[in-house]
Design brief:
The protein is α+β, with helices and mostly antiparallel strands and about 130 residues long. The protein has 3 helices and 3 strands, in the order H-H-H-E-E-E.
Length: about 130
């Protein structure tokens, strides 16, 4: 004759055997999603860093022009600060210097999902000391 406790033990054991592979299946589904999310975060952080560099490049070039520097030096300084592949446009008009820096950030190849390219653009304008001519 079976005791009630042995029947309960058997039912618990059978239930444990049925759920044994569920953790593996859940991990197989969740881990790739977590990896994709982590890679997306890395891409967003790199966009933030590139944006800061674009803003710094425009500010540095505008500061150089405000001190009376020439356009070539200011452009070179902006290109040194900005991310590789940036475009710098310097405009001078009647005592005002304006620097526009543009950078197109493309998603990296190791990011295994399609993301759009982002255009980062900023400008900085300053009054030029003196008459505004180099």
């Amino acid at each position: 004759m079976r005791t009630p406790s042995s029947t309960v033990d058997r039912l618990v054991r059978d239930k444990d055997c049925q759920q044994q592979g569920s953790v593996t299946a859940e991990a197989a589904l969740v881990l790739p999603l977590m990896a994709a999310f982590a890679l997306s975060l890395v891409w967003m952080i790199s966009i933030g860093i590139a944006h800061v560099r674009v803003v710094d490049a425009a500010r540095d070039a505008a500061r150089e022009l405000a001190r009376g520097g020439d356009v070539t030096t200011a452009t070179a300084q902006a290109l040194e600060t900005a991310p590789a592949g940036s475009q710098v446009d310097v405009t001078r008009t009647q005592g005002l210097a304006r620097v526009d820096v543009t950078f197109v950030a493309r998603p990296p190849g190791w990011l295994l999902m399609p993301l759009p390219s982002l255009e980062l653009r900023t400008s900085s304008a300053v009054e030029v000391e003196g008459d505004g001519t180099p």
